[in-house]
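Hey, resending since the last one bounced:
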Amino acid sequence: MAEWAADFELLTTEAKAELAGDHFTAAICKYREAVNVARICAGEEAAVRLGVELATEILPLGSRLAKALLLEAAEADSGKAIPAALWDSIDQQEREEASYRAPRIPARVAPPAERPKVVPIKVVPIKTSAVQTAEAPVRAPRAWQRAPRAGQRDWNFLATAATLAFTVAALGIAAGLIWINASRRAHKPLTADDRAWRAVNMRDADLVESYLLRFPVGAHRGQAVLALSAIRVEHRESAEVGDALREYETAWNARNRPMIMELSAASTPRIEGNQAMVRCIRKVSGVSADGGAEQNVVFVLRKQKGTWMIESDR
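The structure tokens again:
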């Protein structure tokens, strides 16, 4: 954990340095890495405090950049630790920046042009007379229009053939070099770091953590940190979906006494954005002597304002 804390402090320092050098995109990227590390060692509140601090420093330079950092911080902790006064300052500066735009100046409308006066034209017939014309002399073709001689044709053919042969040879050499480079990359010996990473299942948190413990500064450390963060978010969302189903079961039993409904998950929740689907086995007892039949039901849930709500069942 001490190494993770050191990484968080290093990323925090680098983000502030990028911000001081007007490298805003790099500062946001460093802050995202700090958020991923903070979820492991320092907690999400430390990442949120860092985002608020950076957004406060960057606000005088532009409201859009400050808003981008605050949105990152809100995603880390649902915006609970972000002061409302900072959001108000961003909204006020956005309105001020919008007022800086210069008003549009309408174009001047030119007065309509006067119509030209119509002047009558008197047509005078032309008298034609018989004119004796001579045949135009036939000109000899110029040098570039003449057909090439036999020797010239042979030379042109040889030059064209040589050009084609040279082009084919160059393409063959280029293809050979590409194949040699690909073969070298394919037969490049794997390091212990690469072999360990190939054996990691990106959806297994234990395997990812084991890789990070063996190679804390390995070549695939960034991918491992992102994968571990995604797994933890998925586990948290699955737990919240299970809590929503248990609350639904409790409310149904309280409303439909003496009947009792039992829900048991038959599959892992499939979560895509703000929508989740989970297949359950529903059993209602107290209706008949056999204790009620089991039914396969698919629940569709939607996340609204941070809470999972059952939308439909089928």
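Residues 230 and 236 are 10 Å apart (CA to CA).

Sorry for the duplicate.
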